[in-house]
Amino acid sequence: MSQEEKYLAHDLYKEDILGRANVSDSPELLAYYQELEKYKTGALWTIANKIEPWQPQSASVPVLWRYSDLREHVIKSADLVTPEQAGRRVVYLNNSGGKGMSTAVGLLYSGLQTMQPGESASAHAHSSSALRFIMEGRGAYTIVDGQKMLLEENDFVLTPNGTWHEHGVEPDGSQCIWQDGLDIPLVNTLEASFYKVHPELRQAVTEPVNSSIALWGAPALRPQNVGWDKPYSPLFRYQWGPTYEALQRYASIAEGSPFDDILMHYTNPLTGGHVMPTLGASMQLLRPGFVGKAHRHTGSFIYQVAKGQGYSIINGQRFDWQKRDIFCVPSWAFHEHVNTSQTEDACLFCFNDLPVIQALQLYYEEALHDNGGHQQVGG
Asked: What is the fold, at CATH topology level, of the domain defined by 63-373?
């Protein structure tokens, strides 16, 4: 019997729906609890098992958001509200268990934003860190602290916390859709959120277009006499082409992980660490026919399919995905990925809260050893 099973079998673990320890109610105890409430206090034993569980218990559940289901509704929003009216025209992903909440998984927010040719949103800044992953369209751009970046499909873009940023689509472009990812729920939980609009609504472009790529985009090279003292990556745009090439080179010489096959993290080129203090991101390649084994770890993860098709099994539930679909893996949920094609590779973009989990030394991981490392599918 495992240590976890011993805990679960122990009488001291028994609890009712309110998370109480093994203490039976009595008239005296109920009166005591009511007295404590008058002073905005409570008895720890009534909630101990709830606030200190034996293992992580995510409030989120595994979800697959099919792009074929959402695309029509995202596009329709452009006919209903303007960027000026809405601020940001976004359909957000709701996995928080409550109407009006903004959590996609754990303390991560995600949504699908659309803009039409010639549209632009006002410049703003906020305490939350944000990222973009371009899904479709041409002519999209982002301006971050005076640096303008032209964006293409499957590009990954940073808008770090506190930076002035704005988005738009060039007049000769097409309607664009991208995924937004932010740490809004985390910042709100910490009660540290600020938001402000640029006093002139637009910021001046003060650097050459795509200047961060010119300075910091060359692998293993850094420019001389160019300083950077920010806690986030100076490379704001990570292009799809070089990313995919790097994955292919890695795949040509590596055996790969039994869980993730070929996995590479987007990094700060100066430090090799995460791109931002609170949000990390990665891209992985599943070679043709790859069947991953199951493991679980702390941290919340949102995946978007950049290429190919396959399925993932998350806590015993199978989710079949194809290009542009989005799915989430809650903290401590067993998961395994499979590429169903025997001829084409598949690529999964992911963003997560690993920088926070690792900085607080809360990262734990374990493999599933039963059933040959694979989960039983129950739904």
From this structure: Jelly Rolls (2.60.120)
